[in-house]
Design brief:
- By secondary structure, the chain is an alpha+beta fold.
- The protein has a single domain, classed as Alpha-Beta Plaits (2-Layer Sandwich), CATH 3.30.70.
- It contains two helices and eight strands.
- The strands form three sheets. Strands 4-7-1-8 form a four-stranded antiparallel β-sheet. A two-stranded antiparallel ribbon has the order 2-3. Strands 5-6 form a two-stranded antiparallel sheet.
- The longest helix has 14 residues.
- It is globular, with a radius of gyration of 16 Å.
């Protein structure tokens, strides 16, 4: 799949303990993105953060949190990202969703063998 030079970055901030239909919300979002045919998704686990409730969530040993920040990033063409937003709206009761324009430099599926 080739992407145009300009695309949108969809960034979704949720908590690690957030659930959707009995599974982790971040996992459900990635599966929905794949089902929608979006180019790809990445989940990043934060080590420290806070959100709308101003509670600090940290991965420090003495204050081990079971609700670390999770960030899901998805890049695709604008129209495809915008078509996905109503799905997210139904899935996410609490969190932050942002969009920003990005310029795709390379998107190469390639094969599994290393280049020499």
């Amino acid at each position: 799949m080739k992407l145009q030079a300009e695309a949108l970055l969809l960034r979704i901030f949720v908590g690690e303990s957030d659930q959707y239909q009995g599974r982790p919300l971040y996992e459900a979002i990635v599966h929905q993105a794949r089902a929608a045919g979006l180019a790809g998704a990445t989940v990043l686990r934060g080590t420290l953060g806070y959100g709308a409730h101003s509670r600090i969530h940290t991965a420090k040993i003495l204050r081990l949190s079971e609700d670390l920040p999770m960030v899901i990033e998805i890049v695709d063409r604008e129209e495809r990202i915008r078509e996905f937003l109503p799905i997210l709206d139904q899935m996410i009761p609490e969190g932050l969703i942002t969009l920003e324009k990005v310029q795709v430099i390379a998107y190469r599926p390639g094969d599994a063998s290393p280049q020499k």
